[in-house]
Each structure stands twice: as C-alpha cells, then as structure tokens.
Amino acid sequence: MTILFDKKLTLNEDSTTFIENYINYVRTINPEDLYEGKKDKNILKNKFIFRIHQLANLDSAVVSLDIFDKKINVLARIPGFETVVIGSYPLNSHLKKIMSQGVYPTIKITGGRYKKVVPTDFDKDIIKNGFEPYGIILELHQVENVVYKSRKIDIIYKYVFKSERSLVNVSKILMLCFALFGLVLGLGFMFLGFFMTGLMVIVAFFGVNSYTLILSDTYKPKQELNQTQTN
C-alpha cells in the first residue's frame, strides 16, 4: 500500500465534533481501542511507554473527497452519523497529478487527550493526563492493480504452458526427478549405515512421488476429456 500524499488538513468547526463523536462511537463498540486498551497500571508496568494517546486512528470512518477548483474538502462519516466536512487542503498542481493516478483516501488523527508517565522525586512514576490540539492527516493511497498483476501471471502461464497436458508433463518430470533423487539419497544413507534414515527418505521421496506418477497416468486434462466425449 503506497502512500502518495500525507498532509495535515485545515480543520473547521465540525472537525472537533466529528472526533468527539468518533471517540464516543469507539467507546460504545470497542472500548479497548481507547488508550490501546491500557489502564494506568498497565502503562506504568510497561517501561517502553512514556506517552499514549486516547485515540490512535480513525479507521472506522468512511472517507470521501469533494474536489473544487482551488481546494479539496475531506468528508467523513461515522456509522450512525451524517457525513460532515472535517477539513480541507489547497488543490495545487502536485496534488492534481497525484489525484489523476487513481487514489483512495484515509485519515489519521494527531493530538487529543493523552496519558504521560512522569517520574517523581520518590523514585516512583505517576500518570498525568494532558491534551494537545486535534489534527487530522489526509493520506492518499495508490490503488494496487491486483487484477492487472493476475492477468500478467495468467499470460505468462499460458505462454509457458501451451495446454493443460504440457503442465501435467512438466509436473511428471519434476516428480520423477524427486523420486530418483530420493532413491539415490536413501540408498546413500543405507550404505553409510543409517538404515532407518535411508528407508524414511526413500518412502518420503521415492515412494510418494512414484505413487503420484502412477495416479497422474490416469488423469486426463479437460481438453482431452472433452474431445473424447465429442468423438
């Protein structure tokens, strides 16, 4: 997932209300997402945490963009709430170029309420609560062209294997090689005095691959099966 754009938005009068509603929504559906599910005692026990914010992300919000001549409005919706404009960003030539590539937006939060570990004179840490002004970051992600990659793999596959029969033949050759390798390796272990090890290697490599080869002789690709039925 490639991030092409990552900038702070200019917030408006609805931004703080949106964030507070989001916090209440998270508190209702999954309180463990607030302060990463940690109580004060858990924070104090963890020696690697010095500050932890109430909210780490805005992943549950549905984000969309409203593009104007000189700016982009970012709209967000929380399940059960109306869609609101939560901020904007100037539309410059660089951003226009990014938008033309086909992107999808997400938002991140900065600031807000936090808990901070503070050392005392008595060699004992305590938790202090604080607050920083909210911020919202707009991220634009490049759309991964999975379909294109799948088609490319399919083209290569069809180029290498002209038919299903050719794929079966290549598989049989590989299985034969593994079978012979297992037989030689197993006999080598037996020759060195490791009889049980050699026997296990022969069964694992030679036996299994030989059995699979026998089964493959009874397999008919769909193309040949259809031709047989037609005749």
Produce the secondary structure layout:
Elements: E1 3-8, E2 10-11, H1 15-29, H2 40-45, E3 51-53, E4 62-67, E5 71-77, E6 84-90, H3 93-99, E7 103-119, E8 125-142, H4 146-160, H5 164-191, H6 195-217, H7 222-230
Antiparallel strand pairs: 1-8, 2-6, 3-7, 4-5, 5-6, 7-8
Helix pairs in contact: 5-6
Task: Explain what this protein looks like in three dimensions.
By secondary structure, the protein is α+β, with helices and mostly antiparallel strands. The chain has two domains: 3-144, no CATH class; 147-219, no CATH class. It has seven helices and eight strands; from the N terminus they run ββααββββαββαααα. It has helices spanning 15-29, 40-45, 93-99, 146-160, 164-191, 195-217, 222-230; strands spanning 3-8, 10-11, 51-53, 62-67, 71-77, 84-90, 103-119, 125-142. A four-stranded antiparallel beta sheet has the order 1-8-7-3. Strands 2-6-5-4 form a four-stranded antiparallel beta sheet. The radius of gyration is 31 Å and the shape is elongated.
